[in-house]
Design goal:
By secondary structure, the protein is of the alpha+beta class. It has two domains: 319 residues, YVTN repeat-like/Quinoprotein amine dehydrogenase (Methylamine Dehydrogenase, Chain H, 7 Propeller); 37 residues. Helix content is 20%, strand content 39%. The strands form seven sheets. It has a five-stranded antiparallel sheet with strand order 1-6-5-4-3, with no helix packed on it. Strands 2-29-28-27 form a four-stranded antiparallel sheet, with no helix packed on it. A hairpin with a 3-residue loop joins strand 16 and strand 17. The longest helix is centred in the first third of the chain and has 34 residues. The N and C termini lie far apart (66 Å). The relative contact order is 0.09. The structure holds 2-acetamido-2-deoxy-beta-D-glucopyranose (NAG) (5 copies). The site of one 2-acetamido-2-deoxy-beta-D-glucopyranose has 7 residues, from loops. One of its GO terms (biological process) is endoplasmic reticulum unfolded protein response. Keywords: Coiled coil, Repeat, Signal, WD repeat.
């Protein structure tokens, strides 16, 4: 008799679970269709302490997730680690700071884009809001220049989707996807996307030799053939003037995307090349004014370049120096916006160098449980951030603080004018107190 009872009970339970999950998935599908947007707006359950139950959408999310939550997290500690942002339940693939400095966007294969407030990087709790990417996930994310929208590359749809961020009265956000995604044009996997700071164009680059230039509405403006066998990396310069790529060939190619005075697209012109490596280039970076660039190559070196040149007069960029480094794919290089610091990630680790001397000053080993996918400095050069596994690591940019102190003290010695001296002294004091705050926290 007993086995029969157990069987009946488990059948009943099974049916019950089936109905519950059918109801949950059913209503889940219904949510985005009501609004026609591919997003749900909600506060992150982890951060809106105690308020998560208020929102039925976050309950559903929880029901689906218990198994993932149990996955072991990679453990990493370092005195210069300011914090780790942990809300994603999948590998984070891309990070971008908004140009107003207020937000960090991250996307992961957990079908969410998260927007973090940079203001509370040094607080105990980290607030973030979540935009859901329904039935897909974003592999790349990039803020619009006005920090009121972001674009994503969709892994399954293989195209660009624009999301508007609408701030509500209570300070939270609503995310709405544009009614139409960009047309599907790339024939190979994407390596990067970007938006010009001027707001004039969007770039997407695939790992064949194609870079596409779009207007903000998704009209194709130009197609660039990089002729580099493949594109390993490509980006828009932070000043919004240039697009550049690297790949199998040992140079970085830089183009200027030209517009008329009235803002209509004119043409894409070759600007300059960075030539000097002896093997393919993994990655490169611009400083925020595009006067410096850094490159890292399979040839086992990284280089810093002075790109503040009159390329229209056929002037070539100057190589400032070459440093040895032991790197392998995947490898990324980041240049702080103020061009004082270079960070290089390779595999699971990061090295941080003074841009003045090229010397390595810090090293972070095994930062992530997966290979590092992205590396960036915030716009004020205060933090270095990295991603790879589910966590986002935020490091104090002490190399940058030290560089500021050294540089400003040098200038102080030569300064004659009192106002100038005061300004320099203020910069030294600010950097010094930032550095001291990090050092006292260390203990
Ligand atoms: C993260 O990526 C690794 C390697 O690609 C994969 O094995 C792992 O399952 C991913 N983790 C999650 C949580 O998606
Ligand atoms: C929903 O989106 C589809 C295509 O993206 C569009 O044709 C339709 O008009 C939209 N409906 C509403 C109510 O916005
Ligand atoms: C492009 O990326 C895909 C997927 O990562 C890879 O299989 C392919 O070999 C790459 N193609 C080139 C030309 O690098
Ligand atoms: C470079 O790194 C690899 C793997 O991390 C290691 O085996 C090798 O010894 C390193 N080479 C040098 C010159 O440091
Ligand atoms: C670049 O960064 C420096 C230092 O943070 C800042 O003073 C400057 O205004 C920035 N320039 C641009 C074009 O963003």
């Amino acid at each position: 008799m007993e086995p029969f009872v157990i069987l009946a009970v488990s059948l009943l339970l099974g049916a019950l679970i089936f109905f519950i999950s059918a109801a949950v998935t059913g209503s889940r599908r219904a949510v985005p269709q009501d609004s026609n947007g591919s997003t749900v707006n909600e506060e992150d359950s982890k951060v809106s302490n105690g308020e998560s139950d208020r929102n039925t959408a976050s309950k559903k999310q929880k029901l689906q997730r218990p198994r993932k939550e149990k996955l072991q997290q990679h453990v990493f500690a370092h005195p210069l680690l300011a914090t780790s942002l942990k809300s994603h339940s999948g590998n984070v693939s891309c990070l971008d700071f908004s140009s107003n400095g207020k937000y960090l966007a991250s996307c992961a294969d957990d079908r969410t884009v998260r927007i973090w407030s940079t203001k509370d990087f040094l607080e105990h709790d980290h607030r973030c809001v979540r935009a859901n990417v329904e039935l897909d996930h974003a592999t790349h994310v990039c803020f619009s220049p006005d920090s009121r929208a972001f674009i994503t590359w969709l892994a399954n749809e293989e195209t660009i989707r624009v999301f508007k961020m609408i701030k509500k009265d209570d300070g939270s956000f609503t995310f709405t996807a544009a009614s139409e995604d960009f047309p599907k044009k790339h024939k190979a996997p994407i390596v990067n996307i970007g938006i010009a700071e001027t707001g004039k164009f969007i770039m997407s680059a695939s790992n064949d030799t194609t870079i596409l230039i779009w207007d903000l509405k998704g009209e194709l403006l130009a197609t660039i053939n990089t002729n580099q066998m493949n594109n390993a990396y490509a980006t828009v310069s932070p000043c919004g003037r240039f697009v550049a790529s690297c790949g199998f060939t040992p140079d970085v190619k830089v183009w200027e995307v030209c517009f008329t005075k009235s803002g209509t697209f004119r043409e894409v012109l070759r600007a300059f090349d960075l030539k000097g490596h002896s093997a393919g280039i993994y990655s490169f970076a611009f400083s925020n004014d595009s006067r410096r660039m850094a490159t890292v190559s399979k040839d086992g070196t990284w280089k810093l370049w002075d790109t503040d040149v009159e390329y229209k007069q056929q002037q070539d960029p100057y190589l400032l120096y070459t440093m040895k480094c032991n790197v392998s794919d995947p490898c990324r290089i980041a240049l702080s916006p103020d061009a004082r610091v270079v960070a290089i990630s390779s595999g699971f680790s990061i090295s941080v160098h003074s841009a003045k001397t090229g010397k390595q000053e810090e090293e972070f080993l095994n930062v992530h449980g997966e290979e590092i996918a992205d590396l960036a400095f915030d716009i004020n050069s205060r933090f270095l951030v990295s991603c790879g596994d589910r966590a986002i690591r935020i490091f104090h940019n002490v190399v940058g603080y030290r560089a500021v102190i050294e540089e400003m003290e040098g200038r102080l010695k030569k300064a004659t004018n009192e106002a100038m001296r005061e300004r320099l002294q203020q910069q030294v004091d600010d950097a010094q107190s930032a550095l001291e705050a990090v050092c006292t926290k260390k203990e």
